[in-house]
């Protein structure tokens, strides 16, 4: 609909084109960035701007939306919760809402219904795994985009570990799609409330009406709490999944992990028996119509476009022609940790360990490995080795994540996902000791590294605990797991480098960023004794960047950090014995460090459409010794998760496409379509480069031409939608240690890999 009299001409510098919708709290407008990219801006009503309680709620909405921005939601582009009239801009998602689709065309058919069920379960899993409860899942908050369903509007969501803000005297939600506990005790609402809402939504999608519909919202609310759902028109196969979702008690409902298992074997038509076969109904690696598009698989038919991003609010008086003045704030450490999902290569950082930083995973897209020769890394197997699989319980078992590992001598050390670190016997997977982290796991924050006698990891504080540092670097004795020392950690590395790395192991020392994000600190890894401190250059924020045997400091100005625009970052050598900083080397930014090759640091150049990340269009190489910087441009923009292995840059696309580039020239070496989506960074072994997904699917590719050497089936119920995941594979001799979802670890013999079915 067109703009109305009194509507602003622009918000936050973004020219408005039309009004998309309205609701009780604000209005959503279609706008454009300076490059022409369309975005949706939610502008809060003026009369709410002076309500302190509402401002708190809106800040929570922005934080929640940022926290969950990913494959299944509308990513936050910009926001000004402190503006005179608060607003938030998100990516513009084309497609009708589920409510519009049902109104215009009636209930969904079998294949559409199955894809919706799986896609929404994956979406909730993505949302819950970062500790957010949506609390308002309903048909108008689901957009049916060409890429699959997207969940929008986090206006009443909350973090699992935060107290619910309930506006005085109001029940917030939509009764036909609310859970019983949300109507009775909203402060106790948890992730399984969203599962109940999903069940009601799937009934609505299948039949055109909800399971508790009544003429009055009061009667509807009563029936939600007390009556059995009306499921007579729901297909039998789907009903078997929906019924447990609608249990009156939260503990009687499946988790999103369990729900995906239930959905895995749904037949395509939802009316007949499952067809079986290796790909039938499989959701473990997002093998669904809207997520895996091979050249032989056309995309699903897109309904008539109607645009939606986040719900809006009714008309309000407006003045002036430009809204969006805001109070800029530097990222707080706890926020930077929460958005570590955007970090690149945030895995183990050890200058003494040769390894790769990057991502990828998969098969060749056909599941073919017959006749392929297995890669044969050198080295031997641990005494008594047999392939194994284990799960490491973390401090927050309700929000499992992933681990990352480093192998040293006769031990495997892993950390992340509610685990500071654990020591695992590489021969059989038995755990020697485990130190847990009590807080909500942050994607991208895994272990720091290990020395001969010490293991270094991150501890994220439980936000319900007494006040303390939100993130700490912790040293543990390698033999016993006893805590040796800890220090509060800064959390600005993502803002500076685009990757989560606030601490690195350098020889027998650990270099960290202090809690105030003002200096580097070097400690003896075992004793914790401070060897030196090095203040950041005036007016800058810095992060450590390993480069071969050296350590560099990458810095950006405070103004660039505040504006989230690293136009001209600088690199300096950081002396390991004294902390002395070398002369600055300015790089045309923004750039993201991905590894080292032939004595030079290799960085990728991101490409943007407006303010949205579109991929990478080239690379830069910095020689710290000479200060020389050289640039190479790719032939086009390539999207994917970046990483390096054996001097080659790899980009692993969300759809399983892996592209390799020469780190010296930027020329494309090869491209291979695999069947593994959401691949993490690469890891190299003799004769192969390995990629793996959150589901535990592993592929070995030839480093020369990308030829598939072998691939495996999934080993865990993992979400394959994570972007920029650091390498999940650790290579030790001929053994591959692989991390997967839910703190799963497994080991395979690279010479005798399990064959893909």
Describe the structure.
There is one protein chain. With 757 residues, the protein is α+β, with helices and mostly antiparallel strands. The chain has three domains: 82 residues, Phosphorylase Kinase, domain 1; 216 residues, Transferase(Phosphotransferase) domain 1 (Transferase(Phosphotransferase), domain 1), CATH 1.10.510.10; 417 residues, 7 Propeller (Methylamine Dehydrogenase, Chain H). Helices cover 15% and strands 31% of the residues. The protein is built from twelve helices and 45 strands. The protein has a seven-stranded mixed beta sheet. α4 packs antiparallel against α6 and α6 runs antiparallel to α8. The protein is globular. About 16% of the residues have low confidence.
Could you outline the blueprint of secondary structure elements for this entry?
Elements: E1 10-11, E2 14-22, E3 26-32, E4 38-44, H1 46-49, H2 52-68, E5 76-80, E6 87-91, E7 93-94, H3 98-105, H4 110-129, E8 132-133, E9 142-145, E10 148-151, E11 158-159, H5 180-184, H6 191-207, H7 217-226, H8 236-245, H9 256-264, E12 307-308, E13 322-323, H10 333-338, E14 388-391, E15 404-408, E16 411-415, E17 419-424, E18 431-436, E19 449-450, E20 454-460, E21 471-477, E22 483-488, H11 493-497, E23 503-506, E24 509-513, E25 519-524, E26 530-535, E27 540-547, E28 550-557, H12 558-563, E29 570-573, E30 585-586, E31 592-597, E32 600-609, E33 612-623, E34 628-638, E35 641-645, E36 648-652, E37 657-662, E38 668-673, E39 683-685, E40 688-692, E41 698-701, E42 708-711, E43 729-732, E44 735-740, E45 744-749
Helix pairs in contact: 4-6, 4-9, 6-8
């Amino acid at each position: 609909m067109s703009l109305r009299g009194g509507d602003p001409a622009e918000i936050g510098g973004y020219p408005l084109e039309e009004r998309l919708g309205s609701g009780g709290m604000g209005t959503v407008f279609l706008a454009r960035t300076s490059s022409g990219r369309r975005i949706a801006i939610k502008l809060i009503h003026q009369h709410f701007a002076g309500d302190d309680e509402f401002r708190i709620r809106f800040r929570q909405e922005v934080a929640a939306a940022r926290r969950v921005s990913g494959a299944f939601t509308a990513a936050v582009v910009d926001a000004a919760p402190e503006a005179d009239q608060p607003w938030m801009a998100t990516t513009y998602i084309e497609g009708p809402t589920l409510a519009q689709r049902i109104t215009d065309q009636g209930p969904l058919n079998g294949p559409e219904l199955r894809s919706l069920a799986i896609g929404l379960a994956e979406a909730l899993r993505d949302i819950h795994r970062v500790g957010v409860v949506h609390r308002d899942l309903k048909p108008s908050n689901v957009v049916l985009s060409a890429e699959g369903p997207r969940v929008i509007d986090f206006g009443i969501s909350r973090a699992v570990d935060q107290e619910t803000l309930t506006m005085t005297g109001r029940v917030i939600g939509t009764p036909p799609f609310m859970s019983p506990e949300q109507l009775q005790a909203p402060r106790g609402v948890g992730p399984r409330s969203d599962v109940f809402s999903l069940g009601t939504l799937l009934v609505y999608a299948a039949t055109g009406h909800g399971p508790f519909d009544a003429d009055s919202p009061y009667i509807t609310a009563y029936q939600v709490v007390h009556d059995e759902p009306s499921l007579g028109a729901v297909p039998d196969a789907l009903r078997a999944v929906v019924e447990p979702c609608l249990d009156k008690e939260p503990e009687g409902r499946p988790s999103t992990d369990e729900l995906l298992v239930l959905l895995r074997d749904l037949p395509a038509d939802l009316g007949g028996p499952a067809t079986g076969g290796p790909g039938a109904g499989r959701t473990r690696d997002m093998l669904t119509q809207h997520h895996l598009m091979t050249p032989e698989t056309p995309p699903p038919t897109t309904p008539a476009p109607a645009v939606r991003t986040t719900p809006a609010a009714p008309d309000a008086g407006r003045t002036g022609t430009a809204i969006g003045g805001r109070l800029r704030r530097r990222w707080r450490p706890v926020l930077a940790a929460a958005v570590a999902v955007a970090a690149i290569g945030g895995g183990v950082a050890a200058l003494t360990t040769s390894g790769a930083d990057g991502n990828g995973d998969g098969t060749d897209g056909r599941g073919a490995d017959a006749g392929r020769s297995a890669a044969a890394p050198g080295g031997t197997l641990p005494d008594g080795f047999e392939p194994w699989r284990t799960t490491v319980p973390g401090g927050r078992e309700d929000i499992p994540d992933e681990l990352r590992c480093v192998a040293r001598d006769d031990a495997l050390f892993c950390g992340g996902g509610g685990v500071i670190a654990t020591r695992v016997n590489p021969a059989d997977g038995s755990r020697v000791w485990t130190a847990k982290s009590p807080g909500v796991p942050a994607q991208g924050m895994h272990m720091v590294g290990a020395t001969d006698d010490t293991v270094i990891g991150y501890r994220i504080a439980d936000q319900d605990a007494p006040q303390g540092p939100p993130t700490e670097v912790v040293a543990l004795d390698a033999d016993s797991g006893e805590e040796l020392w800890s220090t509060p950690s800064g959390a600005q590395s993502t803002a500076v480098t685009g990757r989560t790395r606030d601490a690195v192991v350098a020889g027998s020392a650990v270099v960290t960023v202090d809690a105030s994000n003002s200096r580097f600190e070097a400690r003896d890894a075992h004793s914790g004794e401070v060897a030196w401190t090095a203040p950041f250059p005036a007016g800058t924020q810095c992060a450590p960047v390993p480069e071969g045997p050296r350590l560099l400091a990458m810095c950006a100005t405070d103004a660039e950090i505040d504006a989230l625009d690293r136009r001209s970052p600088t690199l300096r050598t950081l002396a390991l014995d004294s902390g002395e900083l070398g002369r600055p080397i300015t790089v045309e930014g923004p750039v993201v460090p991905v590894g080292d090759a032939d004595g030079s640091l290799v960085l990728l150049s991101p490409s943007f459409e407006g303010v949205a990340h579109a991929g990478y269009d080239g690379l830069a190489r910095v020689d710290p010794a000479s200060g020389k910087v050289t640039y190479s441009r790719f032939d086009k923009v390539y999207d994917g998760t970046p990483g390096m292995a054996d001097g080659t840059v790899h980009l692993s696309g969300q759809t399983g496409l892996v592209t390799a580039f020469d780190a010296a020239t930027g020329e494309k070496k090869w491209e291979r379509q695999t069947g593994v989506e959401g691949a993490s960074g690469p890891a190299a072994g003799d004769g192969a480069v390995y990629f793996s997904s959150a589901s535990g699917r592993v592929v070995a590719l030839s480093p020369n031409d990308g030829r598939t050497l072998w691939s495996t089936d999934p080993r865990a119920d993992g979400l394959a939608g994570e972007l920029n995941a650091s390498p999940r594979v650790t290579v030790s001799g001929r053994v591959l240690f692989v991390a997967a979802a839910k703190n799963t670890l497994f080991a395979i013999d690279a010479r005798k890999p399990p064959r893909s079915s």
